[in-house]
């Protein structure tokens, strides 16, 4: 790692004779460990500013004065305690595309034959089977996880294996290999989170922390039953009777209608990460956003309020967070007539197409491993499914989404490992940072 430091000169306060203000503002001295130094202009409007500081009478400052100043700063820098490498920079052994870091797994991967881009494309091509459970009208049924099966047809031409049906143990293993998963969005995102917590906690009432006898099966996803007020939205929720997945995962959902506070969405992420354990903070996260229906399907709101701000923020992070944007699923045929023009099939398809186009423009031809944004298209797998109210879907549909998301995490994990992203904890987190050695007795 380079030991170069950048020290702005304020020669007005250091030299009694002073120097022209614009020269002081435009000049930087670069000090290196080998005690050499150069002067170079900062970016400014004064393109003609001389490289060497001059006194008021136009003469160059004596070289012995500049050299003395450099030596003093160099000695001061040597007296400071050395610090470990900044986590904002990748380790020397990793390429730029190797900034996605994942942990170990014991029950995967289940997918090895395709890329994440190919898997996302396969999801977009799925279609509801008219005879499947998703096509049946919601009837407040309860479901057994060990009897779950998909109700759509997987594209035969896809290079990817059909999606795996996860057990609770496998779901915890797949999600626990990441530094954490966080979602931001409205009720459509919330229902996906509900399904994930049912699976992760391996219990019919896993989506809620109270009134579990009422909030099971389809009733969890029918907002008229108000189970949303009891939902589990965070693995750190103190009222849970037992830690989710034995405390081995970080998962949080933040619900709001429109991303009108770009700084707030970044602040929430940073606050969540600040509470992570050392093990989790050294691994990449997955950030999933989805907005639109409450924002009048205006792409600019989603782009400027969530998509672009987070991508800019994530570009300099190490380990790199992976970013997914979820499209809006298909509206049901029972969408109220007054909302069909604004939220009907044509409006939703147009919005999804615009958002997908913008996602691809951000970093064309780049994978999620290289900072690209994945677009998760739910439209095909929900078009033809039965809805409570034309907007929200049943246990079956949301559990299918949860299973597909876990399969995507599996593909992404395999990609990260293939590109050298398996966690190297000895480098990322030296012993003196991560805790005391096992033989420490003091």
List keywords for this structure.
442 residues; alpha/beta; five-stranded parallel β-sheet; 15 helices; 10 strands; 10% strand; disordered N terminus; disordered C terminus
Describe this structure as you would to a colleague.
The protein is α/β, with parallel strands linked by helices and 442 residues long. It has 15 helices and ten strands. The longest helix is centred in the last third of the chain and has 24 residues. The radius of gyration is 27 Å and the shape is globular.
Helix-and-strand structural type: alpha/beta
From the spread of the alpha carbons, the general shape counts as globular
Report the biggest beta sheet as strand number plus sense, adding barrel if it closes.
Answer: 5 strands, parallel
| Poorly predicted segments | 1-56, 73-96, 430-442
Helix fraction by DSSP (H/I, runs of at least 4): 25-40%
Strand content: 5-15%
Distance between the termini: 33 Å
Output the strand order for the largest sheet: 7-6-8-9-10
- Helices, by number, come to 15
Number of DSSP E strands: 10
């Amino acid at each position: 790692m380079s030991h170069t430091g950048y020290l702005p000169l304020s020669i007005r306060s250091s030299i009694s004779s002073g120097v022209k203000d614009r020269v002081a503002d435009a000049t930087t001295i670069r000090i290196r460990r080998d005690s050499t130094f150069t002067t170079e202009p900062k970016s400014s409007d004064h393109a003609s500013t001389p490289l060497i500081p001059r006194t008021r009478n136009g003469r160059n400052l004596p070289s012995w004065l500049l050299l003395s100043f450099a030596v003093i700063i160099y000695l001061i820098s040597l007296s400071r305690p050395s610090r470990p490498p900044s986590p904002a920079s990748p380790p020397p052994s990793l390429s730029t595309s190797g900034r996605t870091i994942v942990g170990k797994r014991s029950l995967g991967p289940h997918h090895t034959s395709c890329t994440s881009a190919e898997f996302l494309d396969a999801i977009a091509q799925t279609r509801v089977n008219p005879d499947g459970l998703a096509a049946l009208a919601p009837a407040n049924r309860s479901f057994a996880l060990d009897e779950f099966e998909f109700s759509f047809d997987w594209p035969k031409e896809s290079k990817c294996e059909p999606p795996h049906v996860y057990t609770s143990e496998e779901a915890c293993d797949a999600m626990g290999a990441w530094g954490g998963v966080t979602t931001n969005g409205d009720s459509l995102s919330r229902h996906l989170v509900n399904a994930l917590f049912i699976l992760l906690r391996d219990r019919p009432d896993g989506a809620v922390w109270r009134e579990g006898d009422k909030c099971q099966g389809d009733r969890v996803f029918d907002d008229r039953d108000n189970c949303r007020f009891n939902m589990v939205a965070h693995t750190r929720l103190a009222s849970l009777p037992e830690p989710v997945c034995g405390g081995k995962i970080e998962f949080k959902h933040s619900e709001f209608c429109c991303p009108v506070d770009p700084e707030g969405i970044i602040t929430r992420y940073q606050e969540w990460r600040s509470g992570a354990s050392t093990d989790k903070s050294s691994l990449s996260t997955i950030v999933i956003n989805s907005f639109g229906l409450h924002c009048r399907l205006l792409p600019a709101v989603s782009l400027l309020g969530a998509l672009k701000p987070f991508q800019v923020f994530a570009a300099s992070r190490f380990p790199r967070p992976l970013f997914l944007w979820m499209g809006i699923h298909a509206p049901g045929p029972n969408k109220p007539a007054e909302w069909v023009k604004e939220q009907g099939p044509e409006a939703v398809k147009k919005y999804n197409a615009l958002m997908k186009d913008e996602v691809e423009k951000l970093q064309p031809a780049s994978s999620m491993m290289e900072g690209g944004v994945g677009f998760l298209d739910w439209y095909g797998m929900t078009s033809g499914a039965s809805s409570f109210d034309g907007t929200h879907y049943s246990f079956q549909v949301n559990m299918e989404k949860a299973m597909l998301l876990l399969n995507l995490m599996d593909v992404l994990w395999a990609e990260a490992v293939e590109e050298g992203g398996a966690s190297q904890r000895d480098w990322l987190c030296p012993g003196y940072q991560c805790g005391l050695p096992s033989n420490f007795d003091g």
